[in-house]
Fold:
Amino acid sequence: MKQINIALLGFGTVGTGVYKLLLENSIDIEHREGLSICVKRILVRDIQKAARLQLADRSLFTLKIEDILDDPSISVVVECMGGVEPSRTYILSALSAKKSVVTANKEVISKHWHTFEQQARDSGAGLYIEATVGGGIPLLRTLTDSLQANNITRLMGIINGTTNFILTRMSEKGMSFEEALLEAQSRGYAEADPASDIEGFDATYKLSILSSLAFHTHIPVDAVYREGISSLSTSDFEAARQLGYEIKLLAIGKKAPGALVEVRVHPTMLPKTHPLAAIRGSYNAVFITGNAVGDIMLYGKGAGQLPTASSVVSDIIYACHNEGRHRHNTFRNIPDMDKDTHLVTDWESIYCIRTKVNDKPGVLSLISGVFAKHNVSLKSVLQFAQQDNSEGGQLAWITFVTHKAREKAVQSALREIDLLECTLEVESLIRVEE
Ligand code: NAP
Ligand code: HSE
Structure:
């Protein structure tokens, strides 16, 4: 039996989940893996608060990182604090002290991956990040260890549990955004600052990690286009319902010949029959297309205490088994994108656009004319509502669904439509995947 001492940094949702899971399954892990994993230290900010949870012996808690970094008997450090600092400094210090690091912190990994990896290579320590994407779904190791024979051309998925939970509650129960967010927070899905979930940052961190591994080139987080869900309104859900769509926050990554890479996170309308439209609550799912395997979809709980602990503990076991022979990533260890990879910003999509106009004869043809001028072909036009305006005329909300069009052409058309006298507002633009 191999004895391993580990330390936890942070004892919140994920940290306590890891502690509980190691306790609950310790006999099975010993039996199956030949590993006895002992939590020797837990770094916290407030010992009283941690002790009140009555989960771990008070003597395990420390306020000093040195108690962990300077303890040669601790070989794996599990970072579950979140945020960039002091996580970045502690991870680097642990790696340079030859301790392997397991982390669920996608923000710090997506922003400082190359530095950590360089330090891990230099000291021979391991760096394990399965829980950074998809919570409990075995996603990253599936990409690196089971799909390595493929060239991956496409990823498309729901990779934020909080926003999927909110969108599901809003769409199915008519709950308000605020109520749904509060429930997601109470269930332990949301980030400490939930703006990270709602504004799409969390999903961009995850897509940066996922697409870097899938496309074998570093995709920096700032290369990922981002829109969150905070601007969605009940009118968007109503339009989606009438068109037979669900709205999901999708992360999309595509790689075309010539190393053309497109990476984006935004609300997306999906036909109700699309498998991703059926992903509800905090569940995540990712479609992966490989040139040999075809399409696969990985599905499971993308957030929450024990699902995330499942991935973290798996990483701890890997870190223990791989001592002295840790592996590193396939892409070159650089902070920027590989010079042979080109970022596509003028992608192709279908668009659902809602305009608020003064309803006068010729309005529809004026707007359609602008789309036509920019080579944006229309698939359908719907008028959802009407009401009197202050000048004795009528207001109308007209929704246009395009055929596949170029992003830049659509944006140029909308700028011009916005300037038309009849246009009061271009209220929303939601991309559609079919
Ligand atoms: P959390 O519940 O807020 O827990 C973080 C814990 O770290 C808190 O107890 C906090 O202490 C502690 N902490 C923060 N800074 C510290 C410091 N300088 N020294 C010592 N302790 C410190 O967050 P979480 O949900 O567990 O998330 C942790 C990480 O896992 C994040 O990177 C998150 O993105 C990632 N993650 C979370 C989930 C999920 O479902 N929750 C899933 C996958 C990945 P206080 O209690 O004093 O604030
Ligand atoms: N806040 C994240 C989410 C946690 O909701 O998906 C899992 O990474």
About this structure: The chain has three domains: 2-135+308-321, 139-302, 348-432. Residues 10-15, 43-46, 80-82, 86, 104-106, 131, 135, 188-189, 191-192, 303-304, 308 surround NAP (ligand 1) (CB under 6 Å). The longest strand covers residues 245-256.
